[in-house]
Design a protein that fits this description.
Length: 181
């Protein structure tokens, strides 16, 4: 039997938290995405009585080349219509792909890592700040806001998570010695 199970969940577990800094010890949210994450993590925990160390990796928005969230975020900027989603005041618990992989390996290699672990950068950004960085890097404007109603029409249930966000920080990874690249 394996020594460890690293379960992939999401920071959506916490539900919308506004300005509140969210660490791994926080209670789950009550929205749809939080309920899904909680049920998924409960199933993973069934390995614990079997002697398997369980890590519930709550993943933020992974940014890196080759697709994923970054590709979707960059497209409007390339078309000169980039900017914040909704108010832009919601936090984006982003993480670079290299650090996401590094944190998974850290969780596998360190017996002290167990339970919840946020897979996010130590400094979450407000969406308006992330949009400004993308605009600067791509040499494109970043002022055009995508209104909330348009996000809801395009993304359905996912829109709620995009418009509210979490200020999740990776306290467990930092406390157990993970070094961000």
């Amino acid at each position: 039997r394996p020594r460890a199970l690293v379960n992939a969940s999401g920071v959506g577990y916490y539900g919308p938290r506004g300005e509140e800094v969210v660490t791994e010890g926080e209670r789950p949210g009550t929205d749809f995405l939080a309920e899904v994450c909680r049920a998924w993590e409960d199933e993973a925990e069934r390995a614990t009585p079997l002697g398997v160390r369980v890590v519930r990796a709550r993943i933020g928005v992974v940014l890196g080349e080759g697709g994923g969230a970054l590709e979707k975020l960059v497209l409007p900027f390339k078309l000169f219509v980039g900017g914040p989603i909704g108010s832009g005041e919601q936090y984006v618990p982003w993480v670079h792909l290299d650090d996401a992989v590094g944190m998974f390996l850290h969780a596998l290699d360190h017996e002290s890592v167990r339970g919840a672990m946020n897979v996010s950068a130590p400094e979450p950004l407000k969406f308006r700040d992330l949009a400004a960085v993308l605009g600067r890097v791509l040499h494109r404007p970043s002022w055009l806001r995508v209104p909330g109603f348009a996000v809801r029409a395009a993304a359905g249930e996912l829109a709620y998570a995009l418009l509210t966000g979490q200020r999740a920080v990776p306290r467990v990874a930092q406390d157990t010695g993970y070094h961000f690249t």
